[in-house]
UniProtKB/TrEMBL annotation:
Gene Ontology MF term list: aminoacyl-tRNA deacylase activity
PANTHER family listed in its UniProt record: CYTOPLASMIC PROTEIN (PTHR30411)
Segments crossing the lipid bilayer: none
Domain YbaK/aminoacyl-tRNA synthetase-associated: start-end pairs: 27-144
Database matches in InterPro entries: YbaK/aa-tRNA-synt-asso_dom_sf, YbaK/aa-tRNA-synth-assoc-dom
Matching Gene3D superfamilies: YbaK/aminoacyl-tRNA synthetase-associated domain (3.90.960.10)
Protein name: Aminoacyl-tRNA deacylase
One Pfam match: tRNA_edit
Length: 156
């Protein structure tokens, strides 16, 4: 993992689609709402990637920015144990990205990835792209191909 996060992301996405290019803005976006405002899109179009832990199992869950992920549905995917959001250290170790810049591809570890069906409402969603000021516009179909993720209902 020697490449800088944005460069690692760019390298990875070029394997899937030469036309994909992250958008890099002048300031960090700390919430889905802030990112949506900056891009002039709906909050739901900003895909949030959250690393959950259940017992010793990790999984990356991706949903539209305007929905809540149901911990019971996380538990159904990850198995026994208490469902917790991963710590900042675990996020960095497992994904290779800082919290707030986690994208569901070009990950440090091989993680199961679950894509919420809420993302299907939009032709284009925006995932983080390795640094807090970057986003990647992508369709759910391409995101599914890039991540190998499973599309399921994760909503509360």
């Amino acid at each position: 993992m020697s490449k800088m996060p944005l460069e690692r992301v760019k390298s990875f996405i070029k394997k899937f689609d030469e036309t994909l290019e992250p958008i890099v803005l002048n300031e960090e976006m700390h919430t889905s709402e802030a990112a949506a405002r900056m891009l002039g899109v709906e909050t739901g179009q900003i895909a949030k990637s959250i690393l959950f832990k259940c017992g010793s199992e990790f999984g990356l869950f991706v949903a539209a920015g305007d929905v809540r992920i149901d911990p019971k549905k996380v538990k159904q995917q990850l198995g026994p144990g208490k469902v917790k959001m991963a710590s900042a250290e675990e996020v960095l170790e497992m994904t290779g990205f800082q919290p707030g810049a986690v994208c569901p591809y070009a990950l440090a570890a091989n993680l199961p990835i679950y894509l919420d069906e809420s993302l299907a409402r939009f032709d284009t969603v925006y995932t983080a792209a390795g640094i807090p000021e970057s986003l990647l516009p992508v369709s759910l179909d391409v995101l599914k191909d890039m991540t190998g993720g499973t599309v399921i209902n994760l909503q509360k």
